[in-house]
Amino acid sequence: MLSLHPVSDHDLADLRRFEFDNRAFFESRINGRPGAFYEDGGVEAAIAAAQREAAADTGYQFLMRDVAGTLVGRINLIQVKRKHYHSCELGYRIAEAENGKGYAKTAVRLMLDKAFNELGLLRIEAKAHAGNPGSIRVLELSGFQQFGRSTRSIEIQGQWLDMLHFECHAPGRRT
Fold it and tell me: Domains of the chain by range and CATH?
């Protein structure tokens, strides 16, 4: 069983360990965080920013915890746009040791429920680079449909990659 929890000050030690332990793994697959994130006070500042974004209804960050309470991943809704759009962008990351256990698929399902039913969003976008079949599969199995491809649009470790763009609409809202 997996549960989502809004990031809070109580998560500081777990979140710091999660991010530091998985830094190289994440940076091999997605853009790295700014160096300041890994300096003294960086994770604390990120938690405070996440809380401000949630209060302003511009973004929501959640931690994924397994049945034992272990932090196994993060999932976020960013760039929340209300007027005229009611949309956002989804992002997630799973700890290296926890990959392949179904956590991403479960977390995306839980987040879609939260986004569409609790937050009243109508459309969610997500991106995955073309060389990330696991993430692409998670999105497709979660009801996302690809609507575009941008070529050579992200640089990861000196290599330019294509990005695939996906969308998912609230049930009954697709026109």
Answer: 3-169 (3.40.630.30)
